[in-house]
């Protein structure tokens, strides 16, 4: 569950501007502020089921955006490459070719 929550939080960070204000409110309250479905329903004077349905649809939309735009995937790849560079630099065996290769990979992700 934690992995899903973290993934949705990342997707929300990248794609929240593509959502409607209502979708943004529900997702923010549910995932960022840890409101329950009942609390959100009460806040907006709607049924708990309506909140649940909206959140599930919005999660699916976020996954579709990621499938097409790959912002999260590129972010994760970039972080892996940067961590590789840091680890490699700490070994004291810095070889220019390796640094250039990793830097080239980072540039391709832009």
In short:
The chain has 110 residues and is mostly helical. It has helices at 2-15, 21-32, 37-44, 48-69, 71-90, 96-108.
What would you note in describing this structure?
With 110 residues, the protein is mainly alpha-helical. Helices cover 81% and strands 0% of the residues. Helix 1 packs across helix 4 and helix 5 packs antiparallel against helix 6. The longest helix is centred in the middle third of the chain and has 22 residues. The mean pLDDT is 89.
Q: Topology of this structure?
A:
Blueprint: H1 2-15, H2 21-32, H3 37-44, H4 48-69, H5 71-90, H6 96-108
Tally of individual helices: 6
Report on the biggest sheet.
none
Total strands: 0
Helix content: over 70%
Percent in strands: under 5%
Low-confidence stretches: none
The overall pLDDT average reads 89
- Give the SSE order as H and E letters: HHHHHH
**SS class:** mainly alpha
Q: What's the N-to-C terminus distance?
A: 31 Å
| Rg on CA atoms, Å | 19 Å
Which geometry do the CA atoms define? elongated
């Amino acid at each position: 569950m934690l992995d899903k929550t973290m993934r949705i939080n990342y997707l929300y960070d990248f794609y929240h501007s593509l959502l409607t204000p209502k979708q943004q409110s529900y997702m923010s309250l549910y995932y960022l502020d840890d409101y329950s479905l009942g609390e959100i329903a009460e806040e907006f004077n709607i049924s708990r089921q309506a909140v649940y349905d909206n959140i599930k649809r919005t999660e699916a939309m976020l996954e579709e955006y990621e499938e097409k735009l790959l912002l999260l995937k590129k972010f994760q790849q970039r972080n892996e490459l940067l961590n590789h560079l840091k680890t490699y630099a700490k070994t004291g065996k810095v070889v220019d070719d390796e640094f250039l290769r990793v830097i080239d990979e980072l540039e391709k992700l832009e």
